[in-house]
Amino acid sequence: MENSFTIRHYVPERDLAELSRLLTEIESVDRDGEDTSEEYLRASLAWPNYHPDQAVWVAESHGKLVGYGVALEQPSQRCTIYVVVHPAHRRRGLGSQLLELTLNRAGEVGAKNILVYANERNEASNLFLRHHAFQPVGSSGALKLVAEPENLTAEFPEGFTLKRYSEVNDPLVLLQALNKCYLGMWGHQHNDNPSEEERKSPRFLHYYDANDILLLFDEKGSIFGICSLKPQGKQEGNGQISDLLDGPGIIQEFREQGYQRPMVLAGMEHLRKKGTRPITLEFWGDNENALDIYRSLGFEMVNRFIAYNKELP
Q1: In angstroms, how far is CA 42 from the centroid of its own chain?
Q2: How far are the Cα atoms of 221, 244, 257, 263 from residue 152, in angstroms, in the given order?
Q3: How far is it, in rounded angstroms, from Cα 251 to Cα 135?
Q4: Pick from 257, 271, 20, 35: which is nearest to 152 by CA?
Q5: Which pTM was predicted?
Q6: N or C: which end of the chain has fewer CB within 10 A?
Q7: Phi, psi (deg, nearest 5) at residue 144
Q8: Is residue 57 predicted with pLDDT exceeding 90?
Q9: What tens digit of pLDDT does each residue of 210-242 get?
Q10: 7 and 58 in contact (C-beta within 8 Å)?
Q11: Residue of 262, 249, 253, 250 lying closest to 293 (CA atoms)
């Protein structure tokens, strides 16, 4: 087959349905658990720093989309990238071309660290990233609740208090929780210098309702943990809707003491008050000890991705 591609910027008004078709065909082969629906692609247009005319590319061959690449600028000089190519057009250099475009974009916005994920079962993707000098630094993924715990009661040490963010309603406390409780966990944004707009209205509140963000305070009233929920927030590849539980964050010095267990139980109890649906727990940067806690609560691994990092000069 002739190796002829045209790479251009993504035009959602024209390309969205065709991109959904491309991603769906890729998912049918790779089975990475990606949401490839048109609804998801429309929602992605509202992501911070998702600029189709500057940082998103599509590749065409004979009038059909065969490749997709995106660079998402993150706080603290980081950039997350995503590159995929249709299986029928792989091993012809297209992936490398799209990768180069995303890396160039990252350099343009001043990023020093590039983050990209590959399904641990996808040998070709992992080899591709290693070939391009990316280094594995962690993992992320999703677990599904398959066995309901008999008791959802979360027990915290005496003096600890669990509150919904709607009870706190202080943007600086929320930003502190996100920075301190996920510190050092790859896949979570860390912003040491938030803008004035972010200080007044954190972007995190665009994704999670204030009533569905749980904050844990210690006996001194200091932030200790966070767990965020989204009822009916996850659509599976088969169309099934599940509740989303974002893996909890605990301040770093206490992260190995098992506080993830009561935080997840509190999150599950919160979701169960709104209905009985499947629960998907998504994790970013958790170590094996935390994953063992989730498994002990009845969760089973659905997919796991290796986080790769590359430093730019």
Answers
A1: 17
A2: 24, 17, 19, 10
A3: 26
A4: 271
A5: 0.75
A6: C
A7: -115, 135
A8: yes
A9: 999 999 999 999 999 999 999 988 876 667 788
A10: yes
A11: 262
